[in-house]
Each structure stands twice: as structure tokens, then as C-alpha cells.
Amino acid sequence: MNERDIQFLESAFKKYYYDHISEIPVPDDMLHREFGYQKLGVKGMTRHIQVKDAGQMRVMLVQAVPSDVYCSNSYYSFPSLDMKEKDWRGADLVFDIDAKDLDLPCRRDHVLAVCETCGRSWMAQEREEEEEEEKRRERGTGEKRAGDPNLECSSCGQAGRVRPKSLPCKKCITASKEQVALLNRILRDELGAGPDHMSTYFSGNEGFHVHVSDPKFRELDARARADLAGYVMLSGLMPEALGVYKASGLDRAELPDLGQKGWRGRFAKAAFGSKAKRAEVISELSKVPAGAAYARFEGIIREVSGDVGARIDAQVTGDIHRIFRMPHTINSKSGMLKAACAVDADSFDPYVDAVVLDSDETVPVECGCPVKFGLGRERFGPYKPGESAEMPVYAAAYAICKGFGRLAAADVPRR
Questions:
Q1: Same domain, yes or no, for 15 and 157?
Q2: Which of 313, 344, 353, 358 is catalytic?
Q3: Catalytic residue flag (residue 344)
Q4: Which of the following is catalytic: 5, 92, 96, 319?
Q5: Spatial contact of 96 and 312, defined as CB atoms under 8 Å apart
């Protein structure tokens, strides 16, 4: 990102914080949390910051002009000290659901390969132009994709600077919301999380965060949180836990039933769907040898594994020293807001509700984006490589943050 684009984004972000500073919620017990931030064009993160009150937090947002702001879910006696000296006192639970982890077929239609050197972009699933394909054949390396360390940009020839950039579609958001709803049901109905202690946020890019501040979970250590994440995902499930054994085959009394509560009922609904189907499976497993019944049931587990558990990032939930993007702050991967929504997120439209940068001013942007994208009730693109278009600030910021746009010179002809 060049200096001109950095200055543009910093100005847009600063205006948002200045205009909305009183609306940004102050984290609970902020004196015992660790804060941190990043700045555009500066490597690394500034962290181990203790913020004493709302006034100090607001000064940091306006004066530092951060690209991203973070706050720990953990509580410490001494949040400004090194990690070993902080004196950990507990942490809220945080869950991360990201569309890129859902393996959706629509992603091939909106993931771009973007060269961070020259800004050229193309569909990540497409092969390079014939000339570049020929070069790869000559090297004998086969097809490369965005993010591969040796992939060269055919425009500028630079290697190692091509990155995948997703412009999530409505299908991505809908699928993510379904996972949010499932996760919240598990937390509420199976783990007893208090609804008043559960908050859902759009991450500002392509997913959702669920925060649980219920005191009953606060003292769970990293191992216990990893176990809890495994329960939510229902990962590592073995036939023995469901009443099917290698040596003795099926134990009907242990096989999950659709009416059961907790994870067993979740599995039964996904695996059988109806009492009749459950009876049919029991009949099939009872007619074959124990080893065959075991293998058949392993197959059932594999078939429904993606539907039984919530698709969360387990590493995020298990990390008690991570600092998370602070609610109602801007995400520099998109220029959009980490915005609060209803617990189930059903009525939340991120491409309207999380678009907060200036909509009145327009700027010329040189961009090359082969797909359409919607923001703030408007549609943009597709754009040919090097094409210049007049965009509102929020859309210009999105294009620059995603890497396929940069500010155009004022005298460049625009469409």
C-alpha cells in the first residue's frame, strides 16, 4: 500500500472515530484488560497497553489513528507487563466463525488473487494467462495459486507478493449466520450460558465473533477451553461413544436417540433425521459382522461431521492470551466495522449495517476487480485492470483495503 492510500485511509478512519467516539462501548473491567493496536504501513502490533478509563481509550483512538484496535478477553492484575508477569485472573469465552473455513462452493466466484506490488487482480481459481502457464510448465512446478510463495504476477513479475482476497457474497454471510445460530443454541441449551452474557458481532470482514462473559466460564484454563471447543464442534467423535464397538458391534441401548438432549441428540438428528431412519440403520448394523458395523458407523460420522458441530476456529477459543478486535472499531481488511448484531445475527446485513465511513464525499479510484460487489445499498464493478471510477469514501476504502484499488490521479479519465 502506497503512502497516498495510507493517508487516505487514516483520514477516513480518524473522521469515523472523531464523529462517533462517544458511541464506541467501553469494555467491562477495562482496567484489567490488555489493549493493543496496529497502524497502516507499520509492521507489528503495539500491545501490552493498559487503558485506565474511557477518556484514555478515546484519546488513543483519535490520536494514534490505528488501523485496527484490540482488547483482551482475559483479565490481568498487571495488563501492561510482559505475558509471564501479567497475573492471569480469568477470561471471557470468544468464538470465531469465518466464511473462509466453511468450504463453500461460491468462494471460487469471489476470491481474487491480488498482487500487493502492482495491484493487479484476477480470479484466484483461474489459470494465469497462457504466457504465465507456459512459464510454469517450463519450470515443471505445475499450477500455482494465490498465496503460493513462488507465484509471480504476470504484470510486474514480482514473486511472493500475490495474496488471496475474498469479497464475500450473501451465501457466505447466510452460511456464517447459520453457524452463529447453531453455536448460540449449543451455548445456551447445552452449556447453560446466560443469554444476558452472550453477544454476537460481525467481524468487519467475512465472519462473526460470539463473546460469552458468563462468570461460570471465566476461570477455564487453555486446556478446558480446548475441550469446550471440541464439544461445540463435536470433533474427534468415535463410534464407541455412540454405542458401536469393533469387537461386539452395536449396542442398541447406547445408540443416540433423536429425543435426547445435548450432543447425543444433535448427532442423532443429523445422522438419522427420523425415527424410521434410525430403526433402518439399527437393522442394517445388526445384520453385519461387528467390524463391518463399526466401519459403516465411522462412515456415518464422517458424513454428518460438518452438520453436527458448529464450525468455529478452535485455536481462537483455546487461546487465553490473544487480544481480539474491539467491538465497534474498524477492520483494516475491509474498512468496515466490527458491529454488534442480534444474538442470532439473522436480520443483520453487514454490507449495509457495518458500512460506516463517509458516504457523501467521492474520490477517484483506479482498480481492477473482475467481480461485482455491493456496499451501502450500491453496486460496484466489475472493473477492468487500470480502470478508474468515482466512488464514495466507504467503497474506495474497501477497494484499497482489499488490495484491488488505489487512489487515482485527479486527471485520470473516469467512467
A1: no
A2: 313
A3: no
A4: 96
A5: yes
Instruction: List pLDDT tens digits, range 247-294.
Output: 888 888 899 999 898 889 989 999 998 999 999 999 999 999 999 999
Query: How do residues 314-343 score in pLDDT, each as one tens digit?
Result: 999 999 999 999 999 999 999 999 999 987
The beta-carbon contacts of 386-391 under 8 Å, at least 24 apart in sequence, are: 387/415, 388/364, 388/412, 388/413, 388/414, 388/415, 389/364, 389/365, 389/414, 389/415, 390/362, 390/363, 390/364, 390/365, 390/414, 391/362, 391/363, 391/364, 391/365
Question: For this structure, is 319 an active site residue?
Answer: no
Element containing residue 72 per DSSP (H, E): strand 68-72
Calculate the alpha carbon distances from 216 to 20, 190, 259, 289 in Å: 34, 14, 27, 46
In the DSSP assignment, the letter for residue 153 is P
Could you read off the pLDDT of 152-210 as tens digits, one per residue?
Answer: 776 777 776 788 888 999 999 999 999 999 999 999 999 999 999 999 999 999 999 99
Q: Are residues 336 and 303 in the same domain?
A: no
Is residue 65 within 8 Å of residue 10, measured between CB atoms? yes
What CA–CA distance (Å, rounded) separates 382 from 387? 10
pTM to 2 decimals? Answer: 0.86
How many domains in the chain? Answer: 4
User: Same domain for 319 and 286?
Assistant: no
Model pLDDT for residues 81-132, shown as the tens digit of each residue: 999 999 999 999 999 999 999 989 998 888 888 887 777 787 776 544 434 5
Catalytic one among 5, 68, 92, 98? 98
Tell me if 190 is assigned to some domain: no
**214 counts as catalytic:** no
Give the chain's end-to-end CA distance (angstroms, integer): 24
Same domain, 159 and 269: no
Range of the domain at 274: 236-308
